[in-house]
# Entry
Amino acid sequence: MIGQLTGKISHLGEKFLILDVSGVGYKVSATTETLQKSKLGTDLTLWTHLVVREDALDLYGFVDKTELDFFQLLISISGVGPKGALSILSLAPPETLRKAISSGNTSYLTQVSGIGRKIAEKIVLELRDKIGGIETENNSLEKDTEVIMALEALGYSNREARESLRKIPDEISETGAKIKEALKQLHK
# Structure
């Protein structure tokens, strides 16, 4: 099993990157956030998970060990494959997903393409106990959902709304202030 790779980024794709490790290029699928932070020619260390299938060997890479652990929790659920798990992790950071799962917020998970209500409920049901003990902040999650809905109503895509929401400083907590800051981020 390949657990970690360190090398130079030789190519960036839409959903993957090629990491050159001592002359061997590894194609590694990664989250949207990891890909956005990556720059060609720079060194990068990724925690990896190798998925062996009959017709392929697929590598999934994460900058943070916490993301890898969450990925492995997600793929342990029947009906959630590695691509779905990667899409879920591209939706929001693991801490935000933990809060959504702990609070039973399935609507947050169904925003991922390919994750329907039943799978979202299954994720919540199976992972709630595994990630239990985490204090949730339902109000914050609801505000984030409101901000995303407001930005979508203004014509922005779900992806654009989420990316702008990630860039908002933590000290901004009011919904209206978050929307204003998200709009500033979108116009940069």
Q: What stands out?
A: Residues 133-138 have pLDDT under 50 and may be disordered. The two ends are 42 Å apart (CA to CA). Residues 74-127 form a domain with the DNA polymerase; domain 1 fold (CATH 1.10.150.20).
